[in-house]
Amino acid sequence: MKGCMSTDLGIITIDPEVVAKYAGTVAVECFGIVGMAAVNMKDGLVHLLKRESLTKGIKVAISEENHISINFHIVVAYGVSISAVTENLISNVKYKVEEFSGMPVDKINIYIEGVKVID
Predict the structure, then answer these.
(1) Angle 90-96-97 (CA atoms, 0-180°, nearest 5)?
(2) Where are the domains of the chain?
(3) Which of 4, 27, 90, 117 is 20 to 30 A (C-alpha) from 20?
(4) pTM of the entire structure?
């Protein structure tokens, strides 16, 4: 079963939503990331999500082999290097989610949905 690990005392199941919430918390701590984004399909507008709604901008999939893939929809700060910000995001999230869950992160896709000027 997806997200399940057997131990001597029983089975541990990790819901993808838990991984998404943890990954989102790690992501917003990264330099240059303003937050997660939700795209309204009806009008195409991008909305910056509040901290308690981070998981709406993150999609986590766990394979049958317990490998994780994560899609982030983010808003970056104006004037930052997108490649530097995304490399930092990928390495931080990969390391911390693997340490947290005990499952390997195979893929992290990042969709930059907007840029915001920070005061």
Answers:
(1) 85
(2) 4-116
(3) 117
(4) 0.88
**SS3 state of residue 119:** coil
Query: Minimal CA–CA distance to 57: which of 92, 88, 33?
Result: 33
On the 0-12 / 13-18 / 19+ scale of CB atoms within 10 A, 77 is middle
Q: Does domain 4-116 have CATH number 2.60.120.260?
A: no
Query: Considering only 12-26, 41-55, 62-76, which range has the smallest mean pLDDT?
Result: 41-55
Would you say residue 48 has pLDDT above 90?
no
- pLDDT at residue 119 is higher than 80: no
Q: Is the confidence at residue 22, as pLDDT, over 90?
A: yes
**Cβ pair 76, 85 in contact under 8 A:** yes
DSSP 102: S
